[in-house]
Each structure stands twice: as C-alpha cells, then as structure tokens.
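Q: Here's a chain of 359 amino acids. Please give me its 3D structure as tokens.
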Amino acid sequence: MIRMWRLSEASADNLGLACTGDGLVLGRTHLIERRNGHFVVRGHTEVARLLKCAYQTEVPTDGVIAGLATVAAALNAGDPCLAPIAAVHLKMPQLPDSATRDVLEVEDALIKNARNEELVGGGSSDFRKASPDDPKHPGWPAGTPDGKGGQFRPKTDAEIAPEVKAGALRLAARRALRTTAIKLLRFSAEAAANLIPILDVAADAAMALDVADTVSQFCRLAKDVTAALDFAQNGPRSFEELQVPSGDYEEFSSYDGFVKRESAQQTMTKMFGAAGDGYQYHHIVTQGSANTDNIPAEQLQNTDNIIRLPTLLHEAVNGAYLEESPIEGMNMYRWLQTQPYDIQREEGLKILRRLNILK
C-alpha cells in the first residue's frame, strides 16, 4: 500500500506540518524557529520531547534532526521549493486531534520556560549566580536561611509566563469538563445534577480561559462543552445512533474521501463533511501507524468504522487507547495494531462501552 505524505496549510486549525514565515510548525508548535533573522532547528532534546508528546511514544530523532536541518538550510537560503520538499520527506504524521495540539502547545511553553530558567554550564560565574532582581532567573537574596542566598529559586505564580499559566489552566478546564461528561453518562441526568457541580466546573473553565488571552479558545471550549453535556444527558447510544447518517454502507479509499470527494469537474463537493461544532469523527479501528500499511483503506474508511462523537468524549476515548495493554510497556493503541482487524474492532467497541458512550 502506498502512503502519501504532504504538508498542511498553516492555520489556527492546522494539525500537520506546515512551512511558515517563522519556520516549520507541527500543528501550531515550531520545530524550526526564526532567531535573530535565521532559521534554527530546535535542540535535540526539545524535539524529542515535543514528538513524544505529539505521538505518545518515543520517536527516534536522529533522522528527524537531520531532515529538519535540511529544511532550515533551505529556508535560510530562501529556497521556496526545497524547504517544503524536505519537510515532506520527514514523513511526519498529523496530530490525531485538536486536544493533542493543545497539549503540545502547553508542552512547548513549558520547554521554553525551562529553557529561560536553566543554567548555561559554560557561562561566566556572574551569569550563574542568581540575582533577586533578575525577572527571568530570580534568586534567593543574600542572607536567606539554609544557605539559599544566591541560588536560583522557583518562580512565584505571578512570575510564571502568562502563556504557560493559560495553557495549563486550559488543559485543566478541559479535563474537568471531560470528567463531568463521562460521569453524566453513568448516572441519570437528574441524579447527576445533584452529584456533579456542572455549572461550577463550567464557571471555573470560563475563569481559567479568561486568564488566557483568547476569546476564541473559550468559544471553542463552550461549543465542546455544550455538545458533550447534551450528548451525556441523554445517556449511552446505540451503534446506529453513533454512526454518521447514511442510507447504506459506504466505503472510501481515504479519510479525505469520506469527508469530501472530487467531482469530474475537479471541484470539491461535500460527502459527510465536518463532524459539526463540538464533535469529531472517531475510527473504531484506528487509522494511522501500522494499520495504514496492514489494513486496506476501505476497511478503515467506511460508515461502519467511523462514528461521530463529542470532542470531549473523543478525547476520553483517545485517553483509553493510551492505557496499559496486556503487553507490559505497550499502550493499547500500539498493542491493538499488532492484532487482527476483528480483535481491534471488538476492543474498540469495549472501550466505548466502558466509557458508557455505547450501549
């Protein structure tokens, strides 16, 4: 089976690799940055940490770093053709969903915050000595008990970078609301209203996102919350209710074909289109990684394998795939891709039932 690799368009909704005027991004996170007018590949450790966060597995980075160096060289040479070609040859999969993109951005902010704070071993003694007046590297003042004077100290809440704080709060809000929706599926709506402070959680999320400087992030979360709670209050669904509306079984040669098709006039006409506000499509037998090569596309991209879930519940399902598998040290996602299609499907349905999404 031939797998096609391509770049994405840089945008707020991007999940893939994209070349921008400031470098190369995965989702919205830079792997190549512009520094002092030049394009620079992120450090080896930073790239490894970002890719592990993106794909939830250790990624061999030697080849990736070499490929990124080629992209950076092309960008620095002002070659508009070589840079994207070299980027495509990285063969880097898209991020699985917007939640992973958000987590990756928080991880990036934490890395940059730590980068600003860490000591440079080869620097001068003046640089390595912490000053209580240094906003980036604050230190304990002279005379602090326990010999802390002149040592670096943790930043206070007021000193933490706003983007780090906002990202962490946004993640905490999503997790709290996702947990609320899952609990709602386990109880009747009336019982859950007495047991779960939904409005308090939503208010906390609003305040958390108010700390962040984006109205759009809150609006997106509001749509996700509305969809998840509306879904959850009506309880688990039958499989037919989770399927996309279709008069009959349909299969496609690619996921793009499921969402849209190209007419004879080379114009794009919608098939099932986007999943809708607050919703995402979920593959019961997962696409990507080994399944891309081992399972025919038509078995993955069809109306029996693709269902429609609220985004917050989809994130919960994705989290279940990252839990420990019967093989120690291997998560469910990786283990399942070593199994036959029928077993993968049955385990995928079990996850949906365990989360009370599927009856």
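Q: Can you summarize the key feature?
A: Residues 17-95 form one domain.
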